[in-house]
Each structure stands twice: as structure tokens, then as C-alpha cells.
Design goal:
single chain; 410 residues; alpha+beta; Glutamine Phosphoribosylpyrophosphate, subunit 1, domain 1; 2 domains; five-stranded antiparallel beta sheet; 12 helices; 14 strands; 46% helix; globular
């Protein structure tokens, strides 16, 4: 487990992380220290990762360290750094560790397609390719932003349907930065020779399974000349290419810092998944700045949640069970919203001080947040997953500092 915190304001940021790594092998469990955050040499940017430390069998820190060697000069913005990394990562030949679960995945998806078609277009077998394809693809438009695969090449419909935001500036900022990255990466993918290789590969994989899949889901044989069946194949390829998986191993990564033209820090979170049927899978989870968030957390953050929100999630669950035993769900919803609103308002009032802290104080607070998670882990687990020495990286627009705080001081 990992606890990484970035505390920041317009003047700078501190990124702090624990160093424990829990290893399980042959029935034995032990803890080894590892480095979870590092600063890019020659750039005002830091990187951290939590969750699955490997992508396609390669350590994520090694992947990012290798990429930083290709950077010749500072880039204009933090989103340019993320775009550059994603373009570089797309072109790498990593080991193919794809699990052979394609038949199971296709059966599950095609059963959903069958239900949708039976309910909405019962005469689908007589429809054109475009009619069936457009109907299936329309179902994808309800997917959320953080499920988009950064390497998808066909998201125009999604942009039009999902990303007009007027009343939430933080969400609008996330979409603005995220779509800038998506569009930049998409342009690269469309020009890359690998793109055609990926599409041809996934199409051949799908078609190799359709003989059994069509019999099991649509009660008919696979006909490569059938318009509606071709539409299902194309829709499935679009789903594979444009949406990141919702299950499986992933590395949760944070880029934080300044581009050459950035005057206050930004943070961008991405999830990197194991490649799916050799297709690269990366989603953009969040993009934010000190204007919208007082801190950014990666990994375990249950201890700090109570401080920053003013209430315990576990306590609310217990209270819900107690209240619902005597009152209606509508009454509980009203009470629940009132508790959350007042508690968070009180907590946020105190957090406003972060806007005025020096970088030295930001470093102190970030380290305390990591140590708070370590304390909670130590008290609740026989073998604490969070803990060890605390590594700290502090940056402003023009300065940087790294320091290690030992877990036990002599």
C-alpha cells in the first residue's frame, strides 16, 4: 500500500510519500523500502505512483525514468509533459502479458448487445450497418470522462455529448486539460504505423472467436458478410480502443509541477493499465490546480479524509443503519446531506490556511499527512502497509529540494 500527498498553493508544492512495500511470496510476507516519488532531472516536475507497481511486467518508475531521458528541454505546460509521455509510451514494445479471456469478454458484451437490440430494434437483422452501429455506439456516450482511453481515436461523439460544463469550474478545468491531452495523443496515434497494426490485430482476434460467440449469444452462425454482424464487430473494436478497462491491474500515477509557461503548479492523475490484447490502455483521472484543491492524494487516504471532510465515512455508514431502522430513506438522505455539508464546511474553513503557507510549512503538513496514514495503518494492521521513511520533494517555479525523513530518529 502507498500514501502519497501533494500539499500546495500558488507559491509552490510539496510531494511526500511513504516507503513501505509489502511483498508476499510463497506464503511469507515482509516489507522492503522502495522509492515511490522522484523529480525529473532538469525539469520542475515530480512523479509518483501507487497501486500496481508494474505495467505489462515492467516497473512503472523504470518506464517513466526511461522516458525522461528523451526530454531535451523543458516543455511549455504540465499537460505537454503528460502528452509527451503518453506518445512515447504508445510506441514502446513491452512484453505482451494479455490473459486469454477474450472469449469470455466477448460473450458478456454481445449478450448486452443482444438485449439492447431485442428491446429497441427487434428487426436488427434486416437493418443496415450504419443503423446497428450507430445504435450500439450511442450506448457508449454515457461513459464517464475518466474511463476514456487516451489512445482512443474516435471520441468526437463523446466530446459533444459529455463535455459542456458551465456550472462547475473545477470540472470544466479537468475537461479542458484532459481533452487537450486526449486530442494531442490522438493526433499522434492516427499518424503512427502502430495504429493500423493494433486495429488489424484486434479485429483478427475478435473474428477468431465469433463462431462460438454468435452461437452462444445470438443463436446464429457467424457470417462475415452480414451487415449487422459487421456493425457489432466495429462497435466492439471501438469499445476496446476508446475505453479503459474497469477491472484488472493498474498503476495510479501523478505528474505534478510546472511547465515552462506555468506560473502556478498543476497536477494530472492518470491510470496506466496492463495492455489489453496488445492495446495500450491509459485513462486521465483528474487535472487540477491549487485554485480547485488544497491537496492531491494518491493511494491510501482514509485518515486525511476525516480531517479534510470533517466526518468519518465508517461512522456515517453505522449511522445510516441506525437511522433507517426508524425513519424513511428520504429522511436519511436529508440528514446525510446536512451532516456532510456542515462537517465539510467547517473543515474547509480551516484548510484555507494552506493558501498562505510557505513551502517549508507545506512540506511539514504533507509529511504529517503521510505519517497520519502510517499511524492508522500501524494501529489497524498486524503488518502495516503504509509507513517507513518519508520522502519529500518541494518545488517552486524556480527552486527544488529533496529530503528523506527517517522513520526512527536515533
Amino acid at each position: 500500500m502507498t500514501a502519497i500527498y501533494a500539499m500546495w498553493n500558488k507559491g509552490g508544492f510539496t510531494l511526500a510519500a511513504d516507503s513501505n512495500q509489502t511483498i508476499t511470496e510463497s506464503g511469507q510476507i515482509w516489507i522492503d523500502p522502495i522509492k515511490k516519488i522522484f523529480a525529473l532531472e532538469g525539469h520542475q516536475v515530480a512523479f509518483g505512483a501507487a497501486g500496481n507497481s508494474e505495467v505489462d511486467g515492467i516497473d512503472i518508475n523504470e518506464i517513466v525514468a526511461r522516458w525522461q531521458m528523451t526530454l531535451k528541454q523543458p516543455l511549455p505546460t504540465l499537460e505537454d509533459y503528460v502528452s509527451d509521455f503518453l506518445k512515447w509510451f504508445y510506441e514502446q514494445d513491452l512484453p505482451d502479458l494479455t490473459k486469454e479471456n477474450l472469449n469470455e469478454r466477448l460473450n458478456a458484451d454481445f449478450k448486452i448487445y443482444r438485449e439492447l437490440l431485442d428491446e429497441n430494434i427487434p428487426d436488427y437483422a434486416s437493418k443496415t450497418f450504419e443503423e446497428v452501429y450507430e445504435f450500439i455506439v450511442d450506448q457508449f456516450s454515457e461513459k464517464s470522462f475518466d474511463l476514456l482511453n487516451a489512445y482512443g481515436t474516435r471520441i468526437e461523439r463523446i466530446e459533444a455529448n459529455r463535455f459542456t460544463v458551465e456550472d462547475n469550474w473545477a470540472t470544466a478545468y479537468r475537461y479542458e486539460i484532459g481533452l487537450k491531452i486526449l486530442n494531442s495523443v490522438r493526433a499522434h496515434v492516427l499518424e503512427s504505423p502502430k495504429n493500423n497494426e493494433y486495429e488489424e490485430h484486434i479485429q483478427s482476434l475478435i473474428e477468431s472467436e465469433l463462431a462460438t460467440v454468435m452461437l452462444g449469444t445470438f443463436d446464429c452462425e457467424f457470417d462475415p458478410d452480414s451487415a449487422w454482424q459487421r456493425a457489432l464487430i466495429e462497435a466492439q473494436i471501438l469499445a476496446f480502443e476508446n475505453y479503459a478497462p474497469t477491472i484488472g491491474g493498474q498503476a495510479s500515477c501523478l505528474f505534478i509541477g510546472y511547465g515552462e509557461d506555468d506560473w502556478s503548479p498543476k497536477a494530472i492523475r492518470i491510470n496506466i493499465f496492463d495492455s489489453e490484447y496488445t492495446l495500450r490502455q491509459v485513462s486521465i483521472v483528474n487535472a487540477t490546480s491549487p485554485k480547485y484543491d488544497w491537496y492531491v492524494a494518491l493511494g491510501i487516504n482514509s485518515g486525511s479524509f476525516e480531517i479534510t471532510n470533517g466526518y468519518s465515512g465508517d461512522l456515517l455508514k453505522d449511522l445510516e443503519a441506525f437511522v433507517l431502522a426508524n425513519q424513511t430513506s428520504e429522511e436519511w438522505d436529508s440528514l446525510h446531506n446536512e451532516i456532510r455539508s456542515k462537517a465539510k464546511s467547517r473543515a474547509q474553513e480551516n484548510l484555507k490556511r494552506i493558501d498562505f503557507l510557505t513551502t517549508q510549512r507545506l512540506e511539514f503538513v504533507a509529511r504529517l499527512f503521510v505519517e497520519l496514514e502510517a499511524l492508522k495503518s500501524y494501529l489497524s494492521s498486524p503488518l502495516p502497509g503504509v509507513g517507513g521513511d518519508v520522502q519529500v520533494i518541494t518545488m517552486t517555479k524556480t527552486t527544488r529540494k529533496e529530503q528523506l525523513y527517517p522513520e526512527y530518529l536515533n
